[in-house]
Design brief:
The structure holds 2 protein chains of 2 kinds.
Chain A: E1 2-5, E2 7-10, E3 13-20, H1 36-64, H2 67-81, H3 83-96, H4 100-116, H5 121-124, H6 127-141, E4 156-160, E5 176-181, H7 189-197, E6 201-203, H8 211-214, E7 218-222, E8 227-230, H9 234-255, E9 271-276, H10 279-287, E10 293-297, H11 311-325, E11 330-333, H12 361-366, H13 368-381, E12 387-391, H14 397-417, E13 426-431, H15 434-438, H16 440-443, E14 449-452, H17 454-462, H18 480-495, E15 499-502, H19 513-518, E16 523-526, H20 531-540
Parallel strand pairs in A: 3-4, 4-5, 5-6, 9-10, 9-16, 10-11, 11-12, 12-13, 13-14, 14-15, 15-16
Antiparallel strand pairs in A: 1-8, 2-6, 3-7, 7-8
Chain B: E1 7-12, H1 21-31, E2 37-42, E3 45-48, H2 52-56, E4 65-71, H3 75-87
Antiparallel strand pairs in B: 1-4, 2-3, 2-4
Classes of the chains: A alpha/beta, B alpha+beta.
C-alpha cells in the first residue's frame, strides 16, 4: 500500500483500477547521425503524418465534444506546422547532427521554456500541449507504435506524470473514474476536464509514477482531501466504498435543496447569497440556488493586466452580472487592492506592513480617479437591476461620509454628461476591523447594511498574520473574542434597523452555523460550493 | 521602415486570458490567408501573425495594448477581415 497526499483539484471520491500512461513512449535513439538529408526527410514525413492524425482528431472531437475541445487539436496541428518550430528542428539536425527524435524533444523543450517565460500563466500552461505534440511526432518517428488502450468496457483511473489532452481522447470519457497526475495547475487541461466531467482529481507534485509500480493496481482517489492510495488494504477499500456511497448520497440529497429556502425548523429564515470573483462564479452561484451575490469582488477586473479598465468596460461587466441575476440583488464591493492583493495596473508604494497600510477604501481615497471611475460604472449598471455598493476596510464614520460623498459626486457627473444611470443603490460597509466592530452602533446610522469580513477581522483581533505559516497555531478562528464581536455587530445592526451578513470564511464553517443563526444573522454570503451544505445544516436546526 | 500610410490597428485586449492559444490560433489561421506581412506589436516586442509560437511567446494579457500593422498588396482586405475578427471577440 502506498499513499500520497496531493493537491485536490476536483471534488469527489472514487475507487478503481489504475490505467497508467507514460509520457515518453521510447527514449530517443543515440544522438550522432551521418545522413542528414535522410534524417530531415524522416522528420518531415513524421510531422506530416502527425498533423494528418490531428486533423482527424479535430473532426472527431468537433462532432462529439464541440468546438472548445476540438480547438485543442487545431492548436496542436498549428504548432506542428509552425515555421519557427520546424526550422529549429531541422537546424538541430544539421548543426548538432542529432537524430530527428532528439531534435523534436530538444525543440519542444526550448519552445515550452519560451512560453513559460512569456509572463502569462495561461500561455505557460500550454507547454503541456507542446510536449503532447512532441510525443505524437516521436511515435511516428519510432514507427508508429500504437498506444496501449484500456478495454472499452472497463472503468479506469487515469494516472500519468503529465496528463495530456490527447491521452484523454484515446478512449471514451465515460470510462474515466478519476485523474491523478504529478504536474499541472488549476488552470490546466486536467483540472478543467475533471471538473467538467465531475470526477475526482488530484495533483501529486514531485511524485514520479512508473508503469511497473502502478499499472492495473487498485487505487483510491479522494478529490476532497487530496489523498491518493495505490494498492489499498482491505480496510481502506471498505472505508472508501462507504465514503463513496455517502458522498453520492450526500450529493443527491444536497441537490434536492437547490430551490428550497434556508429555514430552520422553527421558522427562522437566513438568506443565502454567494461570493463571486467573476461572471462565471455568478453562473455557478445561480445554478446552486444563491438568492443573490453578497460579495462581488470587483478586483478581478484589475488583476493580471497593465492598463486600467475603462468605465465602459467595468459598466459592461457589472451590467452583465446584474442581468444574469435577473432581479436578485448584487452587492458590489468597491476596489479592495493592497496587502495580499496586488496588480500591475495599480502600482503601490512599498510598505513595511501592507496589511495595515494603504488598502481597501484607503487606497480609493489616495487614488480618487480609480474610485470615481468604478462608482460611475456601478451607478450605470444599477439601471439594469438591484445593485448595492459596499465599502471595504472602514474604521470610522468620517470615512463612510467621504465615500458616500464620492458616490453623490459620481452621480452628479453622470447626470451632467447625460449618461443613463440609477441612484437607487443601497450603501453598506464591510465590518472587518476591530474598530468598526466596536463602533458599529455609530456606523449603523450611516448605512443600510453590514457585512462582516471575518478573515481580516480575525487577523486584526488576534494579531495573527494570516499569510504567516509559522503563526497558524495562534490563529484560532473560533476564538471567543471573534464570536462576541460578531454578536455585538449583529445586535448593533438590528438596533438601528440595518441588516447584517457574514461574507468571510467563518460563514461557511458548519460548526458555527448554529451559533450564528441563534445570534440573529440575517444573511450569509458563501463561496458557491458551500451554499448547499450550509443550507442543509440550517434546515436541520431547531 | 514604416511607410507613411501603412495600415495600423490598435486594440486593448479584453479577454480574461489575454491572447491565449485559441485566439492566437484564429489569428494565425486568418493571417495566413493573406499575402501581406502582418505584424503584431505589444510591450515593445514584435511578432509575425502567421506564426503561432511567435504570438504565444509575447504572453499578451488582458488590458495590454496591441498594434497590428498590415503591409503588402492585399493589406486593405487583410485589415478589414482581421479587425472585424478581433473586434467581434
Amino acid at each position: 500500500m502506498t499513499e500520497y497526499i496531493g493537491i485536490p483539484i476536483s471534488e469527489g471520491i472514487t475507487l478503481g483500477s489504475v490505467f497508467f500512461m507514460a509520457n515518453t513512449e521510447a527514449s530517443p535513439v543515440a544522438s550522432h547521425i551521418d545522413d542528414i538529408e535522410k534524417e530531415i526527410h524522416k522528420l518531415n514525413s513524421s510531422l506530416d503524418a502527425a498533423a494528418g492524425e490531428l486533423n482527424e482528431l479535430y473532426e472527431k472531437a468537433l462532432e462529439s465534444e464541440g468546438e472548445s475541445v476540438a480547438d485543442i487539436f487545431m492548436i496542436h496541428c498549428m504548432m506542428l506546422q509552425d515555421d519557427d518550430f520546424r526550422t529549429r528542428m531541422v537546424e538541430l539536425i544539421v548543426k548538432e547532427r542529432c537524430s530527428a527524435q532528439v531534435a523534436v524533444l530538444q525543440a519542444a523543450q526550448e519552445f515550452s521554456q519560451d512560453l513559460a517565460e512569456s509572463g502569462s500563466n495561461y500561455i505557460a500552461d500550454r507547454g503541456v500541449d507542446i510536449s503532447d505534440v512532441a510525443q505524437r511526432v516521436l511515435r511516428h518517428l519510432n514507427g508508429n507504435q500504437s498506444v496501449k488502450q484500456p478495454s472499452p468496457d472497463k472503468k479506469i483511473i487515469l494516472v500519468a506524470n503529465e496528463i495530456t489532452p490527447s491521452m484523454t481522447f484515446l478512449f471514451d470519457r465515460s470510462q474515466l473514474l478519476g485523474l491523478v497526475c504529478s504536474r499541472g495547475s488549476s488552470t490546466n487541461h486536467t483540472s478543467i476536464l475533471a471538473r467538467s466531467l465531475g470526477i475526482p482529481a488530484v495533483i501529486t507534485p514531485g511524485i514520479t509514477y512508473t508503469e511497473d509500480d502502478i499499472q492495473g493496481k487498485l487505487c483510491i482517489v479522494n478529490g476532497s482531501t487530496g489523498a491518493v492510495c495505490f494498492d489499498p488494504d482491505i480496510d481502506k477499500v471498505q472505508n472508501a466504498e462507504k465514503e463513496i456511497f455517502f458522498f453520492k448520497k450526500r450529493q443527491k440529497d444536497l441537490r434536492r435543496l437547490i430551490h428550497l429556502p434556508a429555514i430552520t425548523k422553527s421558522g427562522t429564515k437566513v438568506l443565502l447569497y454567494a461570493n463571486a470573483g467573476s461572471l462565471k462564479d455568478v453562473d455557478e452561484a445561480l445554478a446552486l440556488g444563491a438568492e443573490g451575490i453578497g460579495l462581488f469582488r470587483s478586483e478581478f477586473l484589475y488583476m493580471g493586466r497593465n492598463t486600467l479598465p475603462s468605465e465602459d468596460e467595468l459598466a459592461d461587466v457589472y451590467t452583465k452580472a446584474v442581468k444574469k441575476l435577473d432581479g436578485k440583488p448584487l452587492v458590489i464591493r468597491t476596489l479592495d487592492i493592497g496587502a495580499d492583493k496586488q496588480t500591475d495596473c495599480i502600482p503601490l508604494e512599498h510598505e513595511e506592513n501592507p496589511a495595515l497600510g494603504i488598502r481597501g477604501l484607503r487606497l480609493c481615497f489616495e487614488r480618487q480617479d480609480l474610485f470615481d471611475v468604478q462608482l460611475k460604472a456601478i451607478l450605470r449598471a444599477a439601471k439594469a437591476g438591484p445593485v448595492s455598493i459596499m465599502f471595504p476596510m472602514v474604521c470610522s464614520v468620517s470615512e463612510i461620509r467621504r465615500a458616500k460623498a464620492s458616490v453623490l459626486a459620481a452621480s452628479a457627473d453622470l447626470e451632467k454628461q447625460d449618461v443613463p444611470h440609477s441612484n437607487r443603490v443601497d450603501i453598506g460597509i464591510m465590518i472587518e476591523t476591530p474598530a468598526a466592530a466596536i463602533i458599529s452602533d455609530l456606523l449603523a446610522k450611516e448605512v443600510s447594511f453590514f457585512s462582516i469580513g471575518t478573515n481580516d477581522l480575525i487577523q486584526f483581533t488576534l494579531a495573527v498574520d494570516r499569510q504567516n505559516q509559522a503563526a497558524t497555531a495562534y490563529c484560532d478562528t473560533h476564538h471567543e473574542s471573534i464570536l462576541r464581536l460578531i454578536e455585538m455587530v449583529i445586535r448593533n445592526a438590528h438596533a438601528a434597523g440595518v441588516t447584517c451578513s457574514i461574507c468571510g470564511e467563518l460563514g461557511a464553517d458548519l460548526s458555527l452555523t448554529e451559533r450564528l443563526v441563534q445570534s440573529g444573522i440575517d444573511k450569509l454570503s458563501l463561496v458557491p460550493n458551500r451554499l448547499l451544505p450550509i443550507k442543509q445544516k440550517i434546515r436541520e436546526l431547531e | 521602415m514604416e511607410r507613411l500610410f501603412m495600415r495600423k490597428f490598435e486594440y486593448v485586449i479584453k479577454n480574461d486570458a489575454g491572447i491565449h492559444a485559441r485566439p492566437a490560433g484564429e489569428l494565425v489561421k486568418t493571417s495566413s490567408t493573406f499575402k501581406s506581412k502582418i505584424t503584431l506589436q505589444c510591450n515593445g516586442k514584435e511578432a509575425d501573425c502567421k506564426k503561432l509560437f511567435s504570438i504565444l511567446k509575447m504572453g499578451i494579457k488582458k488590458g495590454d495594448l496591441i498594434t497590428l500593422i498590415f503591409d503588402g498588396e492585399d493589406e486593405e482586405e487583410a485589415f478589414t477581415t482581421i479587425t472585424a475578427q478581433i473586434g467581434a471577440q
